[in-house]
Amino acid sequence: MSGEGSAPGTSPRAPRPLTQKTSGTVSKKGDRGAKEKPATVPPQVGEEEPKSPEEYQCTGSLETDFAELCKLSGYTDFPKVVTRPRPHPNFVPSTSLSEKPTLDDQRLSGSCSLNSVESKYVYFHPTIQVELDSEDKSVKEIYIRGWKVEERILGIFSKCLPPLSQLQAINSLWKVGLTEKTLETFIALVPLCSPTLRKVCLEGNPLPEQPYHKLMTLDSPVVHLSLRNNNIDDRGAQLLGRALSTLHSCNRTLVSLNLGFNHIGDEGAGHIANGLRLNRSLLWLSLAHNRIRDKGALHLAEVLRPFELEHREVVERRRLLLARGARERSQSPSRSRHGDSKTDREKNQPTGLSSLTLDKTEKIQAVKATAKGLGKKKEKSAEVVKKEKLGSAPSPIPGTPKKEDPAKTGKGKGTIPEQKVTKGKGLKTGSKEKRSTLLDSELGAEATEMLSPLLEPVEHRDGKVFMAGNKVLLYLNLIRNRITEVGLEGFLITVQWQAGLLKSQSVSKGPVGLLRLCLTELMLPRDPISKAKAREEEATAPPT
User: Fold this and answer.
1) Can you tell me the distance from the alpha carbon of 310 to that of 318, in angstroms, rounded to the nearest whole number?
2) Which phi and psi angles does 279 have, rounded to 5°?
3) Is the pTM of this model over 0.90?
4) What torsion do the CA atoms of 29, 30, 31, 36 make, to the nearest 10 degrees?
5) Mean of the pLDDT values across residues 277-295?
6) Less CB within 10 Å around the terminal CB: N or C of the chain?
């Protein structure tokens, strides 16, 4: 009994209190840790954690702000903000594909696990790629590709994008599943961003209503706009052409427009050409990979050389000329009243003018008297010197002072013109003031004239009014369209006219016209029989 109660009883029961103690200590430490955790991070007085995205105050860091706003909005799995990967400058692809793998490559491939395979597909996870400034590491450009941007995500963007003071471009909104509602939200977001935002790329987002022209409003800050792969047809091109310019309005901020890889035909090209008639800001236009034929190409070519004004354009031009003339007439009395106030007073007061002339004559007589007095003093000093040298000398002949009269009169004449010069200077300053006011008014008039291209110089021929074509557009891309030799001939006439205009001396300053015209890779009908094969057959044929 003793052996059963002592040895076997104590040996298995001995470690139990130890385990109980250790477990008791662990549970006690866990309890203490659980009790201490909420006590270590108490909310500070006066600072409450935000409970909704509206209460969150952005810090200007896109990575931090986007993550916090997503958490507050209820997102558990949201895209991460990462730096856009760049190829290494020393990276050189292998020249031969038949190279055998090394031992290291074989070991690495043999040791591949599930984690390494999954890590390869991280590239396809939704991310927000950013480009940072090299100096202050601020966000300059944003790239979003291949994942759907919902309304809630755009609401988060509207909260965290405006604090980015150096944001310049929102690039590659490529196939992000925008709808008409989300596009409206995005368009409302663009003016809220930093004034440095100038570039927007909205590509691969076809919409039935095609409301892309809303990014080209008169108050839009967008300078570079890309709308590739949006299935824009002739109806969408009509809206874009109206956004470029109409009879009463014109877009003055958009510099480049990319409409490549769409469904624009001849009718749509005509609408774009109508938008270029009165637009004087667009420098770069791409209509590559569309469905434009010769008719649309001729519309575009005609706008780039002198074209005939329509009746409604002639009427609007006359209205603008009348308004400018009325404005100049209303400003001319104020100029004469302020600029010529002295002359008006002199004309309106003849008595004052006579008194002024009397005062001037009195001054001239006083100057002559002083000149004569100076001449007499010089004569006396000369006589004293002669008496000291030669002794007594006869009195001067009555005709001698006449010899000195030219000197006196010369002195008098020399003094009188000095007075005239001062008067002339005063007149010159007045004329300078008049000229400066006139120059300012001319510059202001020129600035107002440049507001409407209809006020540009025109040419009258056969009872018709012709205006110089659009010479502001510098780059036009029409590759991979259905243009034949007829359309090419129209562009040849345009280029020849612009080249002749450039050689003339009258356009030494200002826009010069097209600098680059891309028409290669046209969809021209080709000979089904290759000429190279015919040459080979001729070379291999036996001589006869």
Assistant:
1) 13
2) -95, 130
3) no
4) 90
5) 96
6) C
